[in-house]
Amino acid sequence: MSTRDFIEKDYYAALGVAKDADAAAIKKAYRALARDLHPDKNPGNAQAEAKFKEASEAYGVLSDTQKRKEYDEARRLFGSGGFRPGGAGGGFPSAGGYPSGGGAGQPFDLGDLFGAAGGQAGAGTRGGGLGDLFGGLFGGGASAPGGTRSRQQAASGPARGQDVETEATLAFDEAVLGVTVPLRMQSPGSCPTCHGTGAKPGTAPHACPVCGGAGVTSRSQGAFAFSEPCRECRGSGSVVDDPCATCKGSGITDQVRTITVRIPAGVKDGQRIRLAGKGAPGRRGGPAGDLFVVVHVTGSELFGRSGDDLTLDVPITFAEAALGTTLTVPTLDGTVSLKVPPGTSGGRTFRVRGRGVHGKSRTGDLLVTVTIAVPGSLSPEARAAVEALAAQLDEDPRPEVTAAVRTGGGA
């Protein structure tokens, strides 16, 4: 991304959030856009694909605290009008100290710029603010002339690839036990035609004649040297005379790729998993970005989940509850025997240890809750048997309620 793009693109508008939005609001807005605009959901829709890329680029900057700070500083300094590159009121200062964008032809006063960047720092510290700001934006800034080489190396050196986010939907048992899944996603990658050089096959880039391959140009103003990305090569340090037809000289194309990802046991619905080095490839030999997988978990017909514990409701008959029984109940990885003692009441919960979710800190349990199954209809013989049993038991299961009725109300 060129410095001009970094300054002129409104990432907040791309995500539809306010400039003071917090990290949670930014993440929520991006996920909603990613779901609606994802290429898999909009095959052949070029407009949706473009908006998806724009939202991903915006999220890559605004979700990173340092990048967002640098972006906001750049927009504040350059985006207000007078100092916008190529704008009507100014531009980057030329070597003579005048605005390159035209304007009224008035000289560009570096003192005014220092004052704006440094605030009310006071006499004698007037230049500190601009140095700090340019240090964040371009890896250098206002300094003694001897600091130019380190800034040039930073501008033209390796650059880390962008982070990429995708989604995966898992079955309930896959989320609990862990699973290896293939993920198909679209993200930037090295151009397969030029292998990332940006040059037409058979040709090669050469060092930029303006910056000498450094990626930045410098000029002196008194005791200070100021650096900015080279306009000729846009900070890359190299020039492509005959661009690759596939990537138009950028060295990067959007590619659909499938990778195999191991989802660990115990993930929860909505959890975000980071896979280091699985994102977009870096530039100029830099490391790849990270891949973030947002997990969605479908429900289970049998089991529920409470933290690291699994829950299961099992109906039993009145006879089993009264006389006791041994139940064979399912788990996610087999079956287990459960002894129900005589006189068990409906709603009682039994704990089967170690048959729940294998979490990071502990293995959960299986919580089995028994309920009394009541027949919807009875045969004449069954009705007679139940009536005979009721006569034999002749017990009041609700003495407190009965006493309250007799006295005309509760306490």
TrEMBL record:
Cofactor note text: Binds 2 Zn(2+) ions per monomer.
Cofactor(s) essential for the protein: Zn(2+)
Placement of CXXCXGXG motif repeats on the sequence: 191-198, 208-215, 230-237, 244-251
Function: Participates actively in the response to hyperosmotic and heat shock by preventing the aggregation of stress-denatured proteins and by disaggregating proteins, also in an autonomous, DnaK-independent fashion. Unfolded proteins bind initially to DnaJ; upon interaction with the DnaJ-bound protein, DnaK hydrolyzes its bound ATP, resulting in the formation of a stable complex. GrpE releases ADP from DnaK; ATP binding to DnaK triggers the release of the substrate protein, thus completing the reaction cycle.
Entry note about domains: The J domain is necessary and sufficient to stimulate DnaK ATPase activity. Zinc center 1 plays an important role in the autonomous, DnaK-independent chaperone activity of DnaJ. Zinc center 2 is essential for interaction with DnaK and for DnaJ activity.
Keyword Repeat belongs to the record: yes
Subcellular location per the Swiss-Prot or TrEMBL entry: Cytoplasm
Any one GO BP annotation for this protein: response to heat
GO cellular component, one term: cytoplasm
Stretches assigned to the CR-type domain: 178-256
Name assigned to this protein: Chaperone protein DnaJ
Protein family membership: Belongs to the DnaJ family.
PROSITE patterns found in the cross-reference section: DNAJ_2 (PS50076), ZF_CR (PS51188)
Encoding gene (name): dnaJ
Binding partners and assembly: Homodimer.
Pfam families tied to this protein: DnaJ, DnaJ_C, DnaJ_CXXCXGXG
InterPro entries from the UniProt entry: DnaJ, DnaJ_C, DnaJ_domain, HSP40/DnaJ_pept-bd, HSP_DnaJ_Cys-rich_dom, HSP_DnaJ_Cys-rich_dom_sf, J_dom_sf
Binding site for Zn(2+) 2: C208, C211, C230, C233
Annotated binding of Zn(2+) 1, by residue: C191, C194, C244, C247
Organism field: Klenkia soli
Gene Ontology MF, one: ATP binding
Domain J: 10-75
Region (Disordered): 82-103, 143-165
SUPFAM superfamilies found in the cross-reference section: Chaperone J-domain (SSF46565), DnaJ/Hsp40 cysteine-rich domain (SSF57938), HSP40/DnaJ peptide-binding domain (SSF49493)
